[in-house]
Each structure stands twice: as structure tokens, then as C-alpha cells.
Design a protein that fits this description.
The chain has 282 residues and is an alpha/beta fold. The protein contains ten helices and ten strands. Strands 1-5-4-2-3 form a five-stranded parallel β-sheet.
Length: 282
Amino acid sequence: MQMTSSPIVTADWLAERLLDPTIKVIEVSSKKGEDAPYTQSHIPGAINFFWKDLCWHDTDREFVTSEKLAERLGAVGISETDRIVLVGEPVQYGTYALWALTMAGHREAYVLDGSRVKWQQDARPMSDVVPEVSPVEYVPQAGDSTMRLGRENVRSHLGDEGRFLLDVRSPEEYSGERVMEIGQFDHGAERGGRIPGAKHLYFREFLNADDTFKSPAELKAKLASVGCVPESLEEVVCYCRLSHRATFAWTVLTHILGHDNIFIYDGSWTEWGSIVGYPVEK
């Protein structure tokens, strides 16, 4: 059953359905093991994945395949017909997992609007109990990776009039002062700067203080302020440092504003800023 035409669900919606056995909540953490906030508290019934353990290939710098996703989700009691609600910790890890699961073919993947922040601000129930799970069969499904672009595509189209490059990193990353956000160890690329021609809009401009999405009108205005008007463009390509924040922009543009010409360069600055011979703008 399709529960909504949008992959974004509210805290109210989820709170009313926490006991529904067809809905599985996954908290996707940027930190692993005991360092993840999940170990202290989480939405009741939620299971936890470190983001790479859910979204990436076991060894390669590549995304999870449909077959491997079936193995991982089936092992924790999730089938291909279950409805997965993704809770990002922090928020952009939810949209990253939505993108990865879309490419691996899970049809019923959704993101909790506001993630843990909104849920906890509303004083909704939290638990420290890790749920018991039993393996089930998960039949691999055909995925969709048509929104994914690689470095050669980006480079070969630099300067194209109909393509808009949207850099959603922090101002310090965009300027080249840093290659990672302030407050984090500054690593991830050999050079600072941006892809030539890219325009800047920090991804947090899409968010309210409680990590919920801003209204469609506000989102359109934010994008238009930097010249990003998808209906007048052939395509918009989003990137950041490692593509987590870029998936947030993709979710806004594709699933809230309804555009079908939005792409993600997932190598993003970690790749581009380290390749010999690739142009950099500051």
C-alpha cells in the first residue's frame, strides 16, 4: 500500500503508526556503535544502521546493490514490502539513505521530517531498548540510479548554459577556506575551492530551526535567490563534500518542488578536490 505520494512523513503521522508492523523505523547514524546517539535513546522500535553499513558497498567506494540491500534488511526483519521510515542523525543522513535505497530498489522508503530534533522537541516518546529482530526473506528489487552523475559527466558539461551546478556546502567550504565544515577535523580533499561555475546555497537554508523542511514557497525563493530556477533549466546538479547534504537538496527539488531534472554528483568535493588535473575555482 502506498501511504503517500511524497517520501516525507511528519512526526504526527509516525507517532500514530508506531505499532504498525508494516512500518519499520531505521535511524541512520553518522557515528558508529557506542558513539551513536541511538545507543542512549531512539524512537521506540527503531533499529540502527551506521550509514556506510546500510548505504555503501562492503569494500568499494560504491553504493549498496539491490542484492546486498536485500541481505542487510532481511537480516533485521525487513522485507521488500515493508514501509521504511528513515531518521537521519544528523538530518541529512536520512535523505542520503533515501537516495541509496531508491537506487537499490526499495519502493517504500520515507524520511521523517525533522528527524530526531523535531521528534524530541515535541517531547514524543523515546526508548533505550534495542528491539529484537528475526530474519525474513527480502526479494531484491530493480533500482533507479538515473539521478546519479559521475565526475566525467560533470567535467564535460562545465559551462553548459542549461546546467546549473548547486553547491550546498558551508560558506567556508565553498570559498575554499576549508574542505570540511567548521567544528569538524578539516579533511576530505587535497584542495579547497569549488567546481567552476557552481553557485552556493548552504543546505541549512532549506531547514527550519527544528530540522523540518521549510515551506515550498520559502524553498523556491531560496533557490531563486541564487539563480536556481529548475523550470527554466535543462538540469540542476547538486553536490557537497560527500553527497549527504546534496541529497537533501535533491529531496527538496525532486520530492517537495516536483522537478524531474535534478541530479547528484555523489563523488562531490572529496573526489573533485583530489583529482589531478581537474579545475578548481576560488
